[in-house]
Write a structure and sequence with these properties.
The chain is α/β, with parallel strands linked by helices. It starts with 5 loop residues before the first helix and ends with a helix. The longest helix is centred in the C-terminal third of the chain and has 28 residues. The chain has three domains: 128 residues, P-loop containing nucleotide triphosphate hydrolases (Rossmann fold, 3-Layer(aba) Sandwich), CATH 3.40.50.300; 171 residues, Arc Repressor Mutant, subunit A; 87 residues, no CATH class. It is 44% helix and 19% strand.
Amino acid sequence: MVHRSEVKDLEKIRGWILLFGRRKVGKTYMIRNFMKYDGYYYVRIDGSVRFEGRSGVRVYDVLNDFVRSVRRMLNMHKTVVIDEFQRLPLTVLEDIASVHPRGRLILSGSSLRVVNKVLSRKSPLLGLVYPYKLGVLKATDVLIALCEFLDAERAVEVAPYLRDPWTIPMFSDNFMKALFRAVPYIVPGLVGEIFTAEEREMTRTYSSILSMIGCGVSDYHEIASTLYGRGLIKRADTSLVIPYIKNLEGMGLVEGIRAYGKKRYYYKLISEPMILYYYMASRYDIDNREVSIDEVMPTITNVRNLAIENFIADFFAEVLGGRKEMIKERDREIDILITVRNKPVLVGEVKWGRYTKQDISDFLDKVEDFACRKIFFAKKRIDYDGVDVLTPKDLIEIAKNFKARTSGG
């Protein structure tokens, strides 16, 4: 069980809340296990509503009865959760909104259009709810949870994947093998659930974009050119691609990383299991054939090493309260660059394998023009002047100190 630091953020918000994010990031689990509420309503696919509260469990087949129940609890200044609320008609939300600001309402949903539904000009909830996006588990949260029963090195290896909560139940000694076998069945369904019936015609475009970004195509100019070549957009114009990418960003599937000192962005998938799936599907066609673990294990190892690199960047962005940026040039590429108020505060390199003092020297040459903290992250430490060589044990200590500082413990 990973204790999510987002719970404290949500506890500080006293008004009505819209909790949204991609499917399977743990919204329902977090609400049910870590948040306080008086009544929990779950809107089922058939439109009926299941209620759980101190008075017991019941199912509302008539929405008017459901609305009266919610309004009654809010008028009593109770805390009410409506999960998968986007399945409700706008008229129902309008009736519920009429009791604002009494009580505390937490709306949770995950379809692509959930935010637009609530924040559009026609929404009865516009201006009444505070939008809060929930993403994958924070790097410090998952690392602290793992270090309770894994050694530091193993914790760092699996943490990038366990940030996606749906992977946690399959964790075992053969975790990467199990994950590789599972992603062809889980990821396509996970992505497919995002799109509503009205958006089916756009699914091919979204799928193509996700596939390209998952395979490492991070430049939107290249994405636009490829989509045009496939006949999915009318011309190779980035203005036709950006709206799709922004939607994917809004749902927590994609993140934009700014090119340092420039106005352009590079894009990557947030979910490491998704990256594993799209990369392996492109290289080994795992959707259409059985592939042996022995054949793919070297590639899985390489993909995992990149995942660790991304994890370390996210970790330090969180700890330093900064922003990840990127330098990706022909003659220089930097693994980690964190800025605060547009000024670099940390640059780093990750070597999850053998390395020598020459590797450290080469890294320092690349970042000699940065007047900030410089780190070199590896399994084992080699002392070297001018750089902090950090190991997995150091990372866990940093995480614990950060949590103690931010929680007041």
